[in-house]
Structure formats: structure tokens, C-alpha cells
Specification:
The complex is a heterodimer. By secondary structure, chain A is of the alpha+beta class. In chain A, 31% of the residues lie in helices and 19% in strands. The radius of gyration of chain B is 15 Å and the shape is globular. Chain B has helices spanning 11-20, 27-31, 37-45, 47-50, 55-60, 66-69, 79-88, 103-116; one strand at 3-4. By secondary structure, chain B is mostly helical. In chain B, helix 3 (37-45) packs across helix 8 (103-116). Classes of the chains: A alpha+beta, B mainly alpha. At the A-B interface, helix 2, strand 5 and helix 4 of A face strand 1, helix 1, helix 4 and helix 5 of B. Strand 5 (112-115) of chain A pairs antiparallel with strand 1 (3-4) of chain B.
């Protein structure tokens, strides 16, 4: 295990003064400081439960209150850690990288502003996917959400963390257009056309005049985003969802090579997802339902899982949205491409406007049941994701699959791989499930994760997103020209946030006031 | 430009559950069945996990019948127990902060589950 995490040395009397000042702005009720209050901002899926401890939390309700909280934090040099709804499970929940931060909890900011003509919603950080889904349904708005596998979290926070969904709008960060941001000194800026006061163009035009700063606030600690414009998908006339059941691990290679050109061409407009048998059963059963010994599942048990669930070693999901004639033609092309390969069971689910929507994420309906996989081993469960980005090639994917699989077996963790096809890349999302009550297992998970990052870095593959415990580890692998990008990030950080009060250590970006690893 | 600033409820989640049981009702009628502030808060704050397609419902199905896994059907759910679990978590359920569910809101939810829901 690592030693206890970095902790900001904030004197108790300074913290007390800051909390009193926060209370004068947000009200005493919304400064949360008891031991129980603090427990809600720990990482629920921590393999290092002693790390990432908050000092307190403050929950403003308006942008003006956020500005004032940030100014107070500067005055007292109190580091804040920003969270939308704190549901970033597997990546740190609401917990800070550096212990001793005060959590800036934006869950009370729940305004929704909807432009129904353009299909653009402007949300505050506390709006969950459920909130927005219900809003759209209750107002009969002709738009669909793209929701992630766990939809309990913040729409804004998920997009800023580069979360993904299943529809053609599934690259959430790509659909951010126009932000309102509280800067580290408490100033307020609007990006893009929003820089022109009261402009009707704020969220319509994806750029502005001069540099577009939207990306500066994505996976970043350079500001507190208080409003975000997000483009939504017009409700489709039809959906065809194909699931290809692929019998053997090696089928991954040709599957990716079959799908990749269709994805590049634009025939497939969303990100196909390929997950193994464990992905299918971990959300609806527990390990002991299938196998009660340590070590990898024997081949005969895997075959039983496949048979009893009518699934392959892999299940690949490809979905088409839009006009019925177009979705039918597109689905048939993909179906034929797979049928040429043989050995593939193709399942189809076709939907037409007016029919009840299947309550699953690929139909834009939020769910939380995917989180149940945290209970796979029993006990108080958890998971982290190891998610390197790969070239979009079957050979590269197979090579990475075998290497990762060997590591899971080496550390005695059940292998749970998945691959998503981006437009030109693969994201290889590997879930690492564990039992938080099993210290030995937590230790193995920690070492497994580090080994996987090192293996990927050898091939020059980096991760798209990471848990708070591993942000530095991963940032270290982005090493061109002696970590020139990190130097750039930290130059900007120190210029904008000289007191280093916003989310120190986020994505491996540290301010001079709290240098990495020296607490 | 049409703009909407409105209320929302999570009544439709119940609809999905009903659909899963093979019974058809319409969403509007369903929303009208929200009987109390406690239920409305349960729908807003808890239903994502404790109605259809929710982590809590799926997890509890490991230990209870399908009907009892649905918290609102549970025969015995003392309010004090509900409050304890919400603030402390249980198994793979996460604890919930006062910023997300205030103490007064939690009282109403606990009363709803303890007295009204069955």
C-alpha cells in the first residue's frame, strides 16, 4: 500500500475562520463539517481508504455564492475541491486528490434552461441525468439524452470529465458548447459567443472570436464551471440496436477490423461497445453464484455462463438512430459484414417512435443498475477502471487484451475488459472490481493498476481518464520533451491561480503552493 | 425561442417498473399517483436506485423476493433504519450528504417508506 496521502497543512484556526466566512455567504446549514458530513465526501470505492480525506464541505446554491466562496478561499489560502454531484464512482467519487481540501459541493445548483428550437440545454452542476430526463419527458420535448452507464451523476460533471454514452451524441465533451466559469480569483467568464453579453448565439456557434477556452475547463482545475451548454440529439424516428454475440476472445480482432472502416466512413455514428461475459453477469449476479474458488474462472464455468445467459465471450453492441429507412439500410450493411465472418449470433432490437422506450441507456434512458457490479465479490464493493486509448486496430486490441489478461490473472482479479470504438481510436475500458473489506485484495488491485499503467506506457498508450489515486502516475506517462505539457498546464495554473486554491493535483496538475508529493 | 424552466418528477420511473411487470399505464396518470411530499422526495432522491433499473433494487433482489426488493413494498422499514442507512451507507450503497438530502427531507422520505409506501 502507499503511505497516507498528501495532506494540506491548514491550521485549524485558519480553517475555522474560513468556514465561518463560508457560512456567512451560503448559510450555516450548508457548511458541512461534522465527521459524518465529511464521510460523505470520501471515495466510496477507495483502495486506499485512509487517503483523500476532506476537511469539510461548502455547498453554494448560486454562481454568485460560488464566486464569493472562491474569494474567501483565496483570502484564507484554503484549497477547494470542486464536485458536481460527487457520483464519479470508480474515479474518486467526490473526494479530493489532496487531503485537507474543503469540498466545493455544487449539488444544490440545479437550474435547467432549455432551448427547444435548437435542442440545447444549459445546466448547472447539480443537475443529474435523471433530473434532465424527467424534465424532457415532463415537458414533452423532442430530444434524447446520451446517458452514461451510471446516470446518477451530474450532466455537467460527466461531460467535463469526458464521460461517454451510447448514442451518436455519446462523446459528451464534444457536445459542450459555451461555458460559464468562475475563475480562481472569483471573476466570472463566459466562453465562445457568450463573451458577448446577452448574445443569443452563446450555445449555437461552437467557437467564439479568438481562442475557444471550453477545453481549458475539461479535466482541469483552472476554474469552476457553473453553467454548461450541451447539444442534445433530436428524438429519432427509429432505433435499431444490434448485439453481436462473439464466441471466442480472438473474435475481438476481426470484429474491430470490420467495424472500424464503417465507423470512419460515418455509417456507424455512435461508439460501438464490446464487453466480455463478465460485464453481462456482474450487474445481475455475484461471483459466488457461479464459482466459489479463487483464481480465474475455469473454461467450463465460462461456457456455462455463456450458455445460461445466451451470450458470447464478447457481446458487441452497435446502434443506429434516425430515419427508419436509413437505420434499416445501415443495420443491414453491418449485419451482412458480420454474417460473412460466420460464427456470430446477431440479435436485433428495433424500435419506432410511438412505442414504449426500452429502459436502457442505448435508448437514452438513465440507469444505475450498472453500479451493482461493485458487489461482485461480496462485502462493501468497489471498482476502478483502467482505460487506455489504443489505435483502432484488431491486432493492437488483441495484443493489449492478452497482456492485460495476464496481469489480471497474475494479481488474482476477474478479467472484465471492454472496448469502445471512437471515430479513429479505441478506448479499452477494463473494470477492476474488488471487495473493500478485503485488504489483501485492495493491495493487489493497487499493484495491478500500477502494473497496467506501466505496461501501457511501454507501448506509448495513455489513459483517457483516471481515478484520483492514479492521476499523478498517469500524468507522468505523458512525457514528451521532459513533460512539456505538464509544464504548460502548471504555468497556466500558477498564472491563473497563484494561491493554488482550486482542486490541487487534479489530473496531475499541481500549483506551486501545493507542489506534488511534498506534504 | 421556446424556453422551459420547470418542475420535474421521477414518476416515470414507476411507469418503467410497471411496464417491466407487463402492465401498461400512461405516464401522466402515474405522476398523479404521487401521494405525498415524502413520495415526491423519494422519487427525486432515491428512485434512481430504488425503483426500476436501479442498483439498489437489483442488489436487494439478491436477498429478497422481487417484490420486497422494491423498498416501497417492504413490509418492515423503520424510519430510524432508513435514516441510518442514508447517512452511513450499507453494503454497496453510498451514504448521502445533507447537501443532497437535507435532514428535513430525509425525515419525510423515512416516514414515507416507514408508514405510507406499503
Amino acid at each position: 500500500m502507499q503511505t497516507p496521502s498528501n495532506t494540506a497543512s491548514i491550521k485549524p484556526d485558519v480553517l475555522a475562520l474560513a468556514l465561518a466566512d463560508f457560512a456567512s455567504v451560503v448559510g450555516a446549514e450548508w457548511v458541512l463539517r461534522t465527521e459524518q458530513d465529511k464521510s460523505h465526501y470520501q471515495d466510496f470505492f477507495a483502495v486506499h481508504p485512509e487517503q483523500h480525506q476532506p476537511a469539510a464541505a461548502v455547498a453554494p446554491a448560486t454562481t454568485e455564492e460560488v464566486q464569493e466562496v472562491v474569494r474567501i478561499a483565496n483570502r484564507h489560502k484554503i484549497p477547494l475541491w470542486t464536485t458536481g454531484r460527487g457520483k464519479n464512482f470508480g474515479y474518486g467519487s467526490a473526494a479530493p486528490v489532496m487531503s485537507g481540501c474543503v469540498i466545493l459541493d455544487l449539488t444544490r445548483m440545479k437550474k435547467i434552461d432549455f432551448d427547444a428550437d435548437s435542442g440545447i440545454v444549459v445546466v448547472e452542476p447539480g443537475v443529474s441525468f435523471y433530473d434532465l430526463y424527467d424534465y424532457i419527458e415532463n415537458n414533452n420535448l423532442p430530444y434524447w439524452l446520451s446517458v452514461p452507464g451510471n446516470s446518477w451523476g451530474s450532466v455537467l460533471g460527466n461531460a467535463l470529465e469526458r464521460g461517454v454514452g451510447y448514442t451518436p451524441y455519446g462523446d459528451h465533451a464534444e457536445h459542450i458548447h459555451g461555458l460559464e466559469v468562475v475563475l480562481p480569483d472569483g471573476d466570472l467568464v463566459r466562453t465562445g459567443m457568450g463573451a458577448m453579453a446577452d448574445s443569443p448565439l452563446w450555445h449555437l456557434h461552437p467557437h467564439g472570436f479568438g481562442p475557444n477556452w471550453d477545453s481549458m475547463f475539461v479535466q482541469s482545475n483552472l476554474g469552476v464551471v457553473t453553467r454548461m451548454g450541451l447539444w442534445l440529439m433530436p428524438a429519432p424516428e427509429s432505433v435499431i440496436s444490434l448485439t453481436m454475440e462473439l464466441d471466442q476472445p480472438e473474435d475481438l480482432g476481426w470484429t474491430i477490423d470490420t467495424l472500424a472502416p464503417l465507423r470512419r466512413e460515418g455509417l456507424i455514428q455512435q461508439s460501438p461497445t464490446i464487453g466480455n461475459w463478465l460485464r453481462a453477469i456482474a450487474v445481475k449476479s455475484v461471483r459466488s453464484d457461479w464459482y466459489d474458488k479463487p483464481g480465474p474462472f475455469p473454461a467450463e464455468v465460462v461456457e456455462r455462463v455463456k450458455r445460461e445467459n445466451n451470450i458470447g465471450w464478447w457481446s458487441a453492441g452497435i446502434r443506429f438512430y434516425g430515419r427508419e429507412s436509413v437505420t434499416r439500410a445501415s443495420a443491414d450493411i453491418v449485419r451482412k459484414a458480420f454474417e460473412k465472418q460466420g460464427r456470430t449470433q446477431v440479435k436485433e432490437r428495433a424500435w419506432l417512435a410511438g412505442q414504449p422506450r426500452p429502459p436502457v441507456p442505448s435508448f437514452g434512458v438513465p440507469i444505475t443498475f450498472a453500479l451493482k457490479n461493485a458487489g461482485w465479490y461480496g462485502g462493501r464493493g468497489g471498482h476502478v477502471s483502467f482505460s487506455p486509448v489504443l489505435p483502432q486496430s484488431g491486432a493492437a486490441a488483441l495484443e493489449q487484451l492478452k497482456r492485460t489478461w495476464r496481469r489480471y490473472d497474475e494479481y488474482g482479479i476477474d478479467f472484465h475488459p471492454g472496448f469502445n470504438l471512437g471515430q479513429r481510436h479505441l478506448t479499452n475500458i477494463n473494470q477492476i472490481m474488488f471487495d473493500r473489506d478485503d485488504a489483501d485484495m485492495c493491495n493487489r488491485v493497487d499493484h495491478l493498476f500500477k502494473a497496467l499503467v506501466a505496461d501501457a506506457a511501454e507501448l506509448r498508450y495513455g489513459e483517457y481518464r483516471a481515478h484520483i489515486s492514479y492521476m499523478d502516475l498517469i500524468q507522468d506517462t505523458f512525457d514528451f520533451n521532459d513533460h512539456a505539457l505538464r509544464r504548460l498546464n502548471e504555468t497556466v495554473k500558477n498564472a491563473m491561480d497563484p494561491n493554488g486554491i482550486l482542486s490541487p493535483g487534479k489530473n496531475g496538475i499541481w500549483p506551486a503552493t501545493f507542489p506534488r508529493g511534498t506534504y | 425561442m421556446r424556453r422551459f424552466n420547470g418542475v420535474f418528477s421521477r414518476g416515470a420511473r414507476k411507469l418503467i417498473f410497471v411496464m417491466a411487470l407487463g402492465v401498461s399505464v400512461n405516464a401522466v396518470a402515474d405522476q398523479e399517483t404521487v401521494r405525498s411530499e415524502g413520495e415526491a422526495l423519494f422519487v427525486e432522491k432515491c428512485a434512481m436506485c430504488h425503483r426500476a433499473m436501479g442498483m439498489g433494487t437489483w442488489q436487494l433482489e439478491q436477498r429478497y423476493s422481487k417484490e420486497q426488493a422494491w423498498l416501497e413494498n417492504r413490509e418492515s422499514l423503520p424510519p430510524a433504519f432508513v435514516k441510518h442507512v442514508v447517512r452511513n451507507g450499507l453494503g454497496i450503497m453510498f451514504s448521502i450528504s445533507r447537501a443532497e438530502v437535507s435532514d428535513s427531507q430525509l425525515e419525510l422520505i423515512a416516514d414515507y417508506l416507514g408508514k405510507e409506501a406499503q
